[in-house]
Amino acid sequence: MASKWISRLDERTGIVGVYKTVFDRKIPKVNWWFTLGSASLFLFSVQVVTGILLSVYYVPSPDHAYDSVQYIMTGVQFGWLIRGIHHWAASLMVLVVFLHMLRVFFYGAYKYPREITWVTGVVLLLATLGMGFTGYLLPWNQKAYWATTVGTSIAGTVPGIGDFILRALRGGTDLSAVTLTRFFAAHVWMLPLVILTVIGIHLYLVIRNGISAVPKDHE
Amino acid sequence: MSESDAVNASRRKFVTATAAAVGAVMGTVVGVPALGYLASPALEAGGTDAWVPLGKLDSFPVAVPTPFSFTRSRVNGWDKSTRSYTVYVLRDEAGVKVLSSRCTHLSCQVTWQADQNAFTCPCHDAKFGAQGEVLHGPPPKPLDTYETKIEDGTLLIRVVEA
Ligand code: HEM
Ligand code: FES
């Protein structure tokens, strides 16, 4: 019964072919380290869902950011849970993406023909770190404010163009309402869009080139 | 079907079923709180019910409706706002009556006009008598009154907000 409907759907969409290409791939005998990419993908999805939920009550303005986060924590049902998941999964995602990169590095999986996969991976790592950096400011509490003051100051030490980078990040010389809104825009629109697009390319390449095998001794 | 194919098929079934079960559990664990989270403001009881002191009863003149204004602040989520109220206190031998200044037609603000001995509404030309009764115009009923009480000589009214 179900298969009849699936074949009808497949006739019109080719969905079975897509499913087989994505999920019924031939893979070499691998180990648990090879699950770290999927774990990264899972954590990213968790961040998208909990992040969208947080945006329902969060307000990116100096007048209300702190109060709106307080409201999420104490006034909204399960607000503490949603924020807690977003908070912890953020740190976990940085860790897992990094471990995934180490696995690829130590297995030499970045070599021909997977160089582009590696390069898109580098973009993903940087964008993930950018998510952490921009997200940290949003609660607009003391820790957030000073961490961003320090972080942007470090970026400002680049020779020559440092001052420009500092102003571009802060939207002026000091941390202000302008900084908060541009960090917010980067955190919820720009970086997620980059990550989403690049994950698409990354996974396309993983599927198209297949997974590399665990290197043998002395290989 | 060879023996190893059969083993593979049953393993595949097991993995699929396990993945579906784990997925369902995780979906519920996140999904139910997410719905509660989104619906939260709609589930709140909300509203306040408070006794607001207007001052010593003796300080209000007798037989003349006397305006009294106050503001009430309310917190809605992260937003703190204030709402202002004007009421009219009417003292006479019978006791005290506190009238709302909201017109019962379409909620404009009525004011006491001593020369006309009436409350007048600027919106559709209504008039109410000193006791709040309709004298003229479209309002369907007299001005609303507040529940009152007197504690240690102080007049209080009950303000209920939705
Ligand atoms: C948001 C972050 C990322 C996601 C969601 C992601 C996802 C994935 C997935 C699902 C795979 C399949 C194989 C596996 O899981 O090991 C994979 C493979 C791969 N990833 Fe990532 N990845 C991310 C970040 C990175 C980073 C930071 C690098 C390196 C700089 C990288 C480089 C690679 C390479 C070269 C492969 C191919 C490995 C092979 O064929 O054995 N990825 N990625
Ligand atoms: S609102 Fe007062 S007369 Fe219409």
Structure keywords:
heterodimer; A: 219 residues; mainly alpha; Cytochrome Bc1 Complex, Chain C; 9 helices; 72% helix; B: 162 residues; alpha+beta; 2 domains; 4-stranded antiparallel beta sheet; 3-stranded antiparallel beta sheet; 1 helix; 25% helix; elongated; binds FE2/S2 (inorganic) cluster
Give the gist of this structure:
The complex is a heterodimer of chains A (219) and B (162). Chain A has a single domain, classed as Cytochrome Bc1 Complex, Chain C (Up-down Bundle), CATH 1.20.810.10.
Write up what this structure looks like.
The complex is a heterodimer of chains A (219) and B (162). With 219 residues, chain A is mostly helical. In chain A, helix 4 crosses helix 5 and helix 6 crosses helix 7. Chain A is globular, with a radius of gyration of 21 Å. Chain A starts with a helix and ends in a 10-residue tail after the last helix. In chain B, 25% of the residues lie in helices and 39% in strands. In chain B, strands 5-6-7-8 form a four-stranded antiparallel beta sheet, with no helix packed on it. Chain B has a three-stranded antiparallel beta sheet with strand order 1-10-9, with no helix packed on it. Chains A and B meet through helix 4 and helix 5 of A and helix 1 of B. The complex binds protoporphyrin IX containing FE and FE2/S2 (inorganic) cluster. FE2/S2 (inorganic) cluster binds next to loops of chain B.
Helix/strand order of chain B: HEEEEEEEEEE
CATH class of the largest domain in chain B: Mainly Beta
How would you state the average pLDDT of chain B, rounded? 91
CATH architecture of the largest domain in chain B: 3-layer Sandwich
> Which topology of chain A does CATH recognise?
Cytochrome Bc1 Complex, Chain C
Task: Please tally the helical runs of chain B, counting DSSP H or I stretches of 4 or more residues.
Answer: 1
- How are the strands of the largest sheet of chain B arranged? 5-6-7-8
Shape of chain A: globular
Largest sheet of chain A: none
**Most strands sheet of chain B:** 4 strands, antiparallel
Number of strands of chain B: 10
What is the CA-based Rg of chain A, rounded?
Answer: 21 Å
Can you identify the CATH superfamily of the largest domain in chain B? Rieske [2Fe-2S] iron-sulphur domain
The H-level CATH homologous superfamily of chain A, spelled out, is: Cytochrome Bc1 Complex, Chain C
Q: How many separate domains of chain A?
A: 1
Instruction: List the helices and strands of chain A in order.
Output: HHHHHHHHH
Rg for CA atoms of chain B = 31 Å
